[in-house]
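I would like you to sit down with the pair of lines that follows and say whether tokens and residues agree.
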Amino acid sequence: MSVVEHEISAHALRARCEGVVPLSARLEPWQRDLCRRPSLLSDLLDAHGSPVNVIDPSPMARNVAELVTAAARFDIDLRIYFARKANKALALVDEARRLGLGIDLASEQELAQVLERGVPGSALVMTAAVKPRHLLARCIGSGTTVVIDNTDELRLVDVLADEMGTSVSVALRLAPHLGGDRIPTRFGFAVSEAIAAAAGPGRRVRIDGVHFHLDGYDPSDRVAALGETFALIDALRERGHHPGFVDIGGGIPMSYLDSASQWRHFWAEHHKALRGEREPLTFEGHGLGLIAHRGEIVGRPNVYPYHQAQTRGPWLAEILAARGAWGRPTASVADGLRERNLQLRCEPGRALLDGCGLTAGRVAYRKQRGDGTWLIGVEMNRTQCRSTSDDFLVDPLLVHPDAVSVAGEPTTPTGSVEGYLVGAYCIERELLAWRRMRFPLGVDVGDIVVFPNTAGYLMHILESSSHQIPLARNLIMGQGHTPYLDPIDARS
């Protein structure tokens, strides 16, 4: 299919649902193909309940290649660790292992599962925010590298390694000082604290590297943090330690939307709506982190930046090319890594899962609230397509199966309406999306709402089974394009 044909095909899929101010999702070929098979989607919902998560691991290879290619341009040894917390599907662990990636872990259960899949401890790093004794013991026993956040963790690792009679690989987590009005991170040590902590443990604790993880996606923040990291590496080596890697964590950007102009236009129109200059774009005027005060818009958007001009490879290249981050003003970050013979590591989740998943749920009802507002009830809840931000600012697709009925009786589409997607929890503001959607061809009971590109965090990071509603099942696209249950669900 040509590029033009792809665009026509994507437009046809979007024809049934879009935001009142559209934010058109970038669609993978496999996502378009699946949405063109409404009977298959309907069968999957019949078999596994609504909603379902459908995952295709294959785009991960392309996303990995972008980062590897960027690092190779600077002759940098890059080691990528897939952030497992971004998605629990074991098929993604298998794909990461097939691609030669390490795995970044955030709990003992995640560790146990990847060890069962045959991933060796030497390919694992534990970055859990809280690390109980039994978790640390399992890390030490399996040879998993532990990222140390505080002196209590370091003391416990030291004691356990001595009790178990074995060595343990650790990385000290740095809390970079970025200055300005930044809120300090709750994770890690300042440089001086890390140097002091490194003097404490015995010979069984090997300080093999330095790690940091920053909020946001600004490459200049990473450059500043790497300058501090180099200073810490140098100080550790002067004191007899042998750190061999720098780990910049995750936060590698991706883009859900192709259109920068759509993204800018949405925010311009949202500002107008908050000032009362046009009808609201969101349910009851939800600000998405912004409010109007005396005609001015204040606050900051509490959402992921769903369009970003610089992602993955180009973003990493900018960091590696940046100069002046450390002692020599004309030396680049890449120079600093090479001269210290340091491996660069990173732990992306969302950026590796770009294009790897979608979430589909069935329309249960259509109704009008007392004020005439249309509400489209979907058999799913808001935690099943939501991260820590206020909203998922990507237009869903609406797929219409060939035969739609309720208890065997045909239903009637609404006709062209605008309204809101609401979910299953008994909460007044149970919105699947805060934005008002337009349904030009109407909505029918049994239609399928598809949220594109949800594999990175959106499926699992907040999912809840409140009201004892089962969690969504996770299906993997097979070679023959017939989805099968992921082992994470098949084992239960």
About this structure: DSSP finds 14 helices and 22 strands in the chain. Residues 219-238 form the longest helix (20 residues). Residues 2-6 have pLDDT under 50 and may be disordered. The CA atoms of residues 429 and 469 lie 18 Å apart.
